[in-house]
Each structure stands twice: as structure tokens, then as C-alpha cells.
Amino acid sequence: MSETVYAAIDLGTNNCRLLVARVKDGSFKIIDSFSRIVRLGEGLNQGNRLNETAIMRTIEALTVCAEKMQVDGLHKRYAPLIGEFAKDCLWG
User: With contact defined as beta carbons under 8 Å apart, do 5 and 29 qualify?
Assistant: First the structure.
């Protein structure tokens, strides 16, 4: 039986981070991670709208995260919620 794997994405105004960990013997063992500067908040003071270039950088980073999350045993309970939230934030 495979061990449960959890993944967490931290998407902020400057960075996109991913941490993937496997539960083993009652603790977490990090099996993958990713971090990229996306500057999603770039230009927000100039009109309160996300910059198209910043959105594209963020989508590219989230695509890498999605690829890294293709791990056997990944617990997917919250993944659809995060995806819907991200879609709503990016496209209104």
C-alpha cells in the first residue's frame, strides 16, 4: 500500500512555492519542492488590476507545480478547491 502524499502551494504577490511530502512513520518527509519569483502583484498600484505578463509568469509556475504534483498517493481532497480559487482570482 502506498503512503499518503500531501502537497501545498503558497501563491503570494511575489512568489509561488510548492512543497510535496510523504507521510512516513508518523512524520512528513519532503520528496519535492519548487519556488519561483512570479511578481504577481507587479503593477497593482497602477489600476488595481493584475498585469498580463505577471499572470502568465504565475500560470507557468503553477503549471510546473501541477506537473510536480503528479505523484502516486497524492491526497487530492483540497486540490479542486485551490484550482477553482486560483481560476477565480486570475480571471474574475
Answer: no
Determine the 3-state secondary structure of 52 from DSSP: helix
**Hunting for cell 519535492 — which residue is that?**
32
Q: In 3D, which of 2, 24, 25, 11 has the Cα closest to residue 71?
A: 2
Q: What is the largest CA-CA distance in the chain?
A: 53
Q: How many residues does the chain have?
A: 92
Strands 5-11 and 15-24: antiparallel
pTM of the model: 0.75
Q: What is the third-level CATH fold of 5-91?
A: Nucleotidyltransferase; domain 5 (3.30.420)
Taking only the tens place, the pLDDT of each residue in 34-58 is 999 999 988 877 777 888 899 899 9
